[in-house]
Amino acid sequence: MNRALLVAAVAASSLLPPAPSSAGEAAPAALWQGFYGGVNWGVATGETKWSDPGGILAARTPRYPASSGQNGLFGGGQIGYNVTVGSWVAGLEGSGAASNLFGHAICGGALGAPDGLGWTCESNLRALGDVSGRAGYAVGRALIFGKAGAAIANEAFAVPVFVENHNGVRPAGGQTRFGWVVGAGVEYALWPHWSVKGEFDYYDFGPGQIGLYDPYYGDVSHVSIRHSVQLFKLGLNYRFNDEGPEISAPMLPILGDVTGEFGGRFGVTTGYFQKNLFAYSPILVSRLAWNDLSAGSIEGFARVDHSSGVFVKGFLGGGSLFGSHMTDEDYPPVTEPYSRTLSQQQKGNNFSAVADLGYSALRGEGWKIGGFVGYSYYQQALNAYGCAQVASSPICAPSDNIPAGQLILSETEHWNSIRLGLAGDVMLTDRVKLAAEAAWLPYTKFGGVDNHWLRPDINPMTETGWKGDGLQLEASLSYFVTDRVSIGVDGRYWSLRTPTGYTQFPNSTTIQRMDFKSGLYGAFVQIGYHFGGR
Prior knowledge:
Blueprint: H1 2-15, E1 34-51, E2 66-85, E3 88-109, E4 118-139, E5 142-158, E6 172-189, E7 194-214, E8 219-239, E9 258-278, E10 284-291, E11 295-306, E12 310-321, E13 324-330, E14 339-345, E15 349-364, E16 367-389, E17 402-427, E18 432-452, E19 461-480, E20 485-504, E21 511-531
Antiparallel strand pairs: 1-2, 1-8, 2-3, 3-4, 4-5, 5-6, 6-7, 7-8, 9-10, 9-11, 9-21, 10-13, 11-12, 12-15, 13-14, 14-16, 15-16, 16-17, 17-18, 18-19, 19-20, 20-21
């Protein structure tokens, strides 16, 4: 037993960075001294709580308190200054980011409408920031830190109402709100000036009163709102210190024997989502199709290759959807006559993440190819506004019966998949690099939430799909403008489906079969920073 413990201790010590070789070398914290600035990017999730309504918001069948979840992306930057004492680091940091977090809650009925019909409380977090004190402890090249401070957010709120002759106007208002933030993270120095970090922050805004002005009735209704947000943040910082001192703590040996790159992509994606509802297979009852789901997208990516051939890679990104449309079809004999309605998709967003672990079994000078196993996550939030009948059904007829600004339906889709694939790259010249990968998805699971906002009797409905599969393809062509920096283009194709699925209507004992499919095409420009060799 003692011998085994000794062997384990020796093995573990070989992975640790050696201590400074002389008293003259700088303490680890000296690396973090001074001014710095950088960019951040990540995933946000939050919750908005509505309570204590007044005015028209309390006029008919209010459903308060009400709450709505939010998911989205954010991106921004930070600046700060650190001072060091021994291995301790303290400083002040200011950060800010734009975001695309939307949320909707069932919050009541409307004048002139059946009980419980028509009101959806909508929140939109457009930007947030904070000024925080940071304190941390430096261990080798790593800085473990915590933060706390004052926070600010810019938010917009609205209540789309369903009232005859209301013409689609709605109570709405915006507010700059103040709150607090706490967080923690780890930052790691890659080189004397550059570092990367991972961070979690919790923001709280409220409670507070906000006034929503209704131009139709000409009054202001007040409601109490409390909002909390959690950020999962990745960041890149540049420190404006001089060239010395050099980093006295070397990288872990396993990290000193790697090559790779990290960077960002910016582009446009387009795609689709479709779901079918069956009464008794194969009798099709209803089909909802969201087409031309185009979005402006931004993402961060990274790949690290060890000299042994093992590699890890992945990306994290998403964006805001442009306007598109949704088609809702209902079929005989359940719906007579056949119905086909059109709605406009607005205020949607998508998010995707991939993480892979692989081994380059074949490699040579300037090229490599290997297999990998990984995980893929894809989420999309879709919102349909207005409803116009284009067939002969009385549903949503006449076409101006439901205002164009009325939210009628939302769909939130979640796809979780296992990836098996091949990835490779080759230097076509000393400056041009081609990379490609293909992944088969042998297991794909779908989870969805359907919100029929004008149907409180069936809102919300959960949806499940399994026994799915899919395909994900990607290729990029890069040009090295310097030995470390490259620019290029990237293309992507995804196809996901779950032919076996189900849902159960509220207050029903019957399970109904469903199937789901989603697709994505993307084109990006990218910039990357390469470390180690190529």
